[in-house]
Known about the structure:
- There is one protein chain.
- By secondary structure, this protein is an alpha+beta fold.
- Helices cover about 30% and strands about 25% of the residues.
- It has four domains: about 1-170, Immunoglobulin-like (Sandwich); about 190-250; about 250-360, no CATH class; about 370-545, no CATH class.
- It has helices at about 1-10, 195-210, 210-225, 230-250, 270-290, 295, 370-380, 400-415, 415-420, 440-445, 465-480, 505-510, 530-545, and strands at about 20-25, 30-35, 40, 45-50, 60-65, 70-80, 80-85, 90, 95-105, 115-125, 130-145, 150-155, 160, 165-170, 255, 265, 300-305, 315-325, 330, 335-340, 345, 350-360.
- The strands form four sheets. Strands 1, 3, 5, 7, 8, 9, 11, 12 and 14 form a nine-stranded mixed sheet that branches. A five-stranded mixed sheet has the order 6-10-4-2-13, with no helix packed on it.
- A hairpin with a 6-residue loop joins strand 15 (about 255) and strand 16.
- Helix 8 packs across helix 10.
- The radius of gyration is 30 Å and the shape is elongated.
Amino acid sequence: MIFALCLILISSTVFTYGSTGVRAAESSKITISGNVSNIRVGDTFKLQINGEQFEDLFAVEVMLAYDAQALQVQDVKAGEAYDSFDAYQIDAAKGELYLPLARKQLQPNPQASVHLADVTFRALKDKGVEVQIRRIKAVGSERQTNQQGYKDLKGLTSEAGEAIVIQIAKQDGKAPDYSSGQTSSTSSSDKPAASAPTIIDGAKAILNEKDPMKAAEKLQALLSGLKSELSAVEKEALLQAAEATVAGLSVVPANKEGTGVDTVYVISAADLSQYDSLLQSIRASLHKWNIDSPQIDNAQLKAVMEYTLSGRDVNKLGVYRYNETSGTWDYVRGTVHQIDAGKFTVAAKQAGSYRIMEYSRPYTDTAGIYAEAKYAVEVLTAKHIVNGTSDTLFSPSKQVTRAEFSSMIVRALNLDLLDSADQAKSAYSDVGTEAWYSKDVAVLNKLAIINGFSDGTFRPNDPVTREQMVVIVMNALRSLELLPNSSGTAEKFTDDETISSWAKDSVNMARELKLVSGTGQNRFMPKQPTNRADTAVFIWKMLQQLN
C-alpha cells in the first residue's frame, strides 16, 4: 500500500533532477558504478545503482539511458533493502530503463548511502558508449499534506551522478556466443570455462559447509561463475549441493528470549528478508541453467521452536504470535508439532514474537458427557478447530450442520492454507459468497472433497449424517495422500446394507483405521445425524491417526 502511494505521488509529478520538496541532504545524488574495463562484444557486466548522502530515501524512480545498438539489458535486481516489485520497464528501442524502487520496511536509522539496484548489460557492438541517469524522482518516509489537500510523502531533491563510460572492444574475430550465459566482464576467449572437476569440487565444498549462509554464498559464487552448458554429472553435483543448501537456508533463526513456559522466540524482519532474498536468488540462478527440483521450488521459510512441557498437556499446546495492534497473542495455524522431539515447526511468514502456550477454555455443559468426548472437545478447542456456542457453553448434544462440519475439517487439516479458494465462485446455488462458511465450502469443492447434491445444492443447514461425515474426511485424507493401503479386513456393521453405495468404501476404511465404531448391536446407523460431542471424538481420532 505504501509503495502504491509512492507511485501515485511520483507519477503525479513530471520527472526532474530537482523536484519540488525539501532537500534530503547536501549533495544527495543517485550514482552509477561498476567495473567496466576489458569489455568485449558478447560479454555481460553489472552496474550498481546507489543513493548517496540521503537522510531518509524511502522510494525513488530512476530513468537510465543507454545506447540500444551497443547494449542490451539482461537482468535487473533490486538491492537487499529495496524492492522493484518487478515493475521496471525496458524500452529497448529508445535505450531506456525505467526503475521504481521502494524500501522494504521503515528503518529507525536509515543509511545515508544505500545500494538500490544492480543492472546487468550485454555488450552487442564494439564502440564507446555511456550509461547515464536521465531522470530522478525521490521521496522520504515522512508524511505531509500536498497542495491538493491529500496525504503524501515528502519529495526529496536529488542530483544525478556522472555517466559511466564503457569502451567495448571487438571479439578478436570470434563471433560472440550469446548462449553461454556469461556473467563476468572478461570474455570467454580470455578466461576458460570452469572444468568439470572445478564444479564438482565446488559442489562438494558446499555440501561440507555447515553454516547455511556460507553455503548459500558459495553456491551463488559457483553459479555466477558458470560460463558454458553443464554436463549431466555437473548438473547432478550442483543439484545435490543446491538441495542441501536450500534445506538449511529454509530454516530462519528464531532467537530465544527467557526460559521455561515464558520463553519467547523472536523472528527478526532482517533475517526473514535476507533468507528469502537468498532463496529467491538461488532459485533464479538454478532456473537459468535448467537445474530444477520440486524440493527447491517448493521450499518455504520456517522456524523451529522447542519447549519443555512443565506439567502442561502436550495436546493442548500451540504456537501464538503477539499482535502488536490488538495487544493479544494470536493462534498460529498450520504448525507441525513433533511431540517426541518437543518442538514446533512454524511457517516463517511474519516477523515478530512467538510463544508456545497451553490453551484451556472450560465449558459448563461438558461435565456430564463421556470422558473421551469431553477430552476431545477440550483438545479441539485448544487447537482452535471447534468453538463453543457461547463463551461458557459447548452444546455437546446439538446436531452439526453440513456447513459447520465443512469448516471444522478445513481448519483441522489446514486445507485453506494449502489451496485458497477465496476468489472462487460458489459451485452451489444455495451457498452465497457472503455466507460465513462459503470459503470453506469452496475449498472443499475445489479439492474434489465434496460434490453436493444432483440438483446443484449443498444444503448447508441440513444436519450432516454419519456416512456423509466419514466420506468427507476420507476424501480429504485421500486428496492429501494420507490414506494407507486398505487390507479390506474390517468387520462389517450389522446394518451394512443400509449404508449408501457411495459411502461403503469410506466407512469400511474408517472402521479399519479405528476412526468409527458401531453403536449398540454393532450398528453404524449411517443416516443418523451426528452431534457436536461425537463429531469432536471423530476429528480427534483422525488427528491422532495422522500423527
